[in-house]
Design brief:
By secondary structure, this protein is α/β, with parallel strands linked by helices. It is elongated and about 90 Å long.
């Protein structure tokens, strides 16, 4: 009896505690703390990389320009440069320039640093000019992509090792490039001695290994950990002797910092006093984060960097190349992981501008900021806008700030202004569940002049509408959706040409509008009509006085609305109709909606307003902000609906807190304003 009483009391206390926790946290509320006085490492900035010659084995007969400036005209090139370096652009503070293998064709020959670099140099020169015009400064890190083929054992710019006879020649190859850059006004500050040269499974001497030779890789030369340390100790005195000792030396760029530690590169440098004295910056790529265990695995840790910093506390760490990933919230989350997990001082993604076909038939790196297209135009990708949210928040000279959040799917990167003129800023990445495969669905059926059409538009995954319909049916159909406090608004425009009708002949057409709560496994289904579609619509183009009948809805001409998922003024004069007929047992009574329809000579327009409080609209964040003089923050956001970058209202710090409803799979940047 006593045991049963104790068990009952424990159950009651557990229930009370659970209710208290729910009252405190809510089912969808998160709590974050950003203390701008709790600063971490100095931030050198975000960077950019124009890649020109990256993998061709015979430049004379097969020239290459991955960046694509080759097919753009002067005006387009300047537009791209403005997008990167302009006042409203990315404004990077670091540029990475590759030293490819084609600057020298034989021992004792004449260096030609311009033949294979004209587009890269055009981009960097234009960037320097634009950046300086708005008061920004740039620094350059240059990386040896690989030595000339004649310096290698296999006479190849890739999959080879350095011929010991050319050890000094390779040093002079890099040094002459540095002299060229300095002589021509390029602000080069660091030299990196290799590009992913530590992945020995790529090289011919291991050809008995499965997948050893990967011919779709870019230039690289094999570097073992001890060889890296020895060559750094060898190269630095020559640099000083040749008058470029003011340029810092890095140990090259393994695929990620995990390998910098795991492969023993840091240990070899630490055990070599001359190498330890020669190193000026720790560099690495950032690929592999998030991969499952295996050959491509990498986590975020700075163990190798920390080992060297025990001896050289002033050493900084840069990631100089990393994937753009999905160009969305996942990219943003990995950026946060890289910066904080690896204690970075700078971050540069891989090739920000890409003419994809120049890589080959399959370009696994095709995600980028700007794509150069085969028709000699370019497009700005979503990744550009995501990256911009970070580049504008984290300016050089600021410091990283310690952040805390009680959700594993929300990431925050914060930057303190320090002695700069840049305001305190922070970026929130919400990877919360987006319910992509159970998301709501709007169904619209139309029959115009005997032509039947059935459309489905999944909310928060509108791009699937294209995949689910016949291509001719979706031709030129526009759609957009935006969340509301208790649901969402979906706006659509159907061209008359696609529907097989013309507005001026006042067509009569059957139609219906349904809403599904959930797509693949619906939890509910409601419609404007019941199972029998007895109503028709009639376009009223003039002052017709026609017997319409009670089963006919008159659609009147109105101002052409902008398709952006917002119920603007053009919809205010349009009559709405309730969507509430239950078409599925178990549909919750709180699921409801309204539709409106209007037209012009080109399109039939539909607006559907859905009330569905069962949806998780996002994550309510309570952000405690301290240690900053800023009491108001400007905010802008990209989200999974494909927003380029939308300006939000200003957010005020009230009682030390900012309350913000963060949409799932979104990135929001807050920048302090006076």
């Amino acid at each position: 009896m006593k045991t049963r009483f104790i068990s009952t009391m424990i159950a009651i206390l557990t229930l009370i505690l659970t209710l208290q926790l729910k009252a405190q946290f809510g089912n969808n509320k998160a709590f974050a703390t950003i203390d701008f006085s709790n600063t971490l490492q100095e931030w050198d900035g975000f960077g950019f990389n124009y890649v020109e010659t990256c993998k061709t084995l015979d430049y004379a007969n097969n020239p290459q320009d991955l960046g694509g400036f080759t097919i753009l005209d002067q005006e387009q090139k300047q537009q791209v440069i403005n997008l990167i370096f302009g006042e409203n652009g990315l404004r990077p503070s670091i540029i990475k320039m590759f030293l490819d293998p084609w600057h020298l064709d034989k021992k004792g020959g004449t260096y030609d640093h311009e033949w294979t670099t004209k587009n890269m140099r055009y981009f960097v020169r234009g960037g320097l000019k634009k950046a300086r015009s708005i008061g920004d400064s740039l620094q350059i890190i240059t990386t040896l992509y690989g030595p000339p083929p004649f310096m290698t054992v296999h006479n190849s710019p890739t999959f080879s090792i350095l011929d010991p006879e050319y050890k000094y020649d390779m040093a002079l190859y890099m040094i002459d490039w540095l002299k060229y850059l300095k002589r021509n006004g390029y602000p080069v500050t660091y030299l990196s001695i290799h590009n992913e040269g530590t992945d020995w499974l790529r090289f011919p001497q291991y050809e008995n290994q499965p997948n050893a030779i990967q011919f779709n890789r870019d230039y690289n030369q094999l570097w073992r950990p001890k060889e890296i340390a020895d060559y750094m100790a060898y190269l630095k005195p020559i640099m000083i002797e040749e008058g470029v000792g003011d340029i810092g030396l890095t140990p090259g760029e393994p695929i990620n910092l995990f390998r910098f530690d795991h492969f023993g590169i840091a240990d070899e440098i630490a055990q070599n006093p001359k190498a330890l004295q020669s190193i000026d910056l720790i560099t690495s790529h950032g690929f592999g984060i998030g991969n499952p265990l295996g050959r491509g695995y990498a986590n975020t840790n700075n163990y190798g960097a920390a080992l060297l910093q025990k001896h050289r506390p002033e050493l900084k760490t840069w990631v100089t190349s990393d994937s753009w990933r999905n160009m969305g919230a996942v990219f943003g989350a990995v950026l946060c992981e890289q910066i904080y997990g690896n204690n970075l001082n700078a971050f540069i993604p891989w090739a920000g501008i890409q003419w994809s076909s120049e890589w080959g038939k399959t370009n696994k790196h095709k995600a980028c900021a700007i794509s150069v297209l085969e028709d000699s135009t370019f497009q700005v990708n979503r990744g550009y806008y995501v990256y911009k949210q970070f580049t504008l928040a984290g300016r050089p000279g600021m410091r990283l700030v310690r952040t805390v959040i009680n959700r594993p799917d929300v990431f925050i990167a914060a930057f303190s202004q320090e002695a700069t003129e840049n305001p305190d800023a922070f970026v929130i990445v919400n990877l919360g569940e987006s319910n992509r495969y159970v998301t709501d669905l709007v169904e619209i059926s139309l029959n115009v002049n005997g032509n039947s059409y059935y459309y489905t538009f999944p909310y928060k995954d509108l791009v699937l509408a294209y995949k689910q319909q016949k291509p001719d049916q979706m031709k030129n159909v526009e759609f957009a959706a935006e969340p509301t406090e208790n649901g969402y608004i979906m706006e659509l425009a159907f061209p008359w040409k696609t529907l097989g009708g013309k507005s001026e002949v006042a067509p009569k057409f059957d139609f219906n509008v349904n809403i599904r709560d959930g797509r693949d496994m619906p939890h509910g289904h409601i419609g404007w009509l019941g199972d029998n579609n007895e109503f028709t619509g009639k376009i009223l183009t003039g002052n017709e006085n026609t017997e319409l009948g009670e089963a006919t809805i008159v659609i009147q001409r109105n101002d052409s609305p902008q398709i952006d998922g917002i119920e603007d003024n053009s919809w205010q004069r349009v009559q709405s109709y309730v969507i509430s007929n239950n078409r599925m047992p178990g549909t919750l009574p709180m699921i409801s909606g309204k539709w409106k329809m209007t037209f012009d000579n080109e399109n039939l327009y539909v607006l559907v307003k859905v009330n569905d409080p069962t949806n998780e609209q996002g994550r309510l964040l309570q952000i405690r902000v301290t240690g900053t003089p800023y009491k108001t923050f400007r905010a802008f956001r990209t989200d999974e609906l494909g927003e380029k970058c939308r300006e939000l209202e200003y957010f005020s710090v009230k009682n030390g807190v900012i309350e913000y409803l963060s949409p799932n799979h979104s990135i929001t940047t807050f920048i302090g304003i006076r």
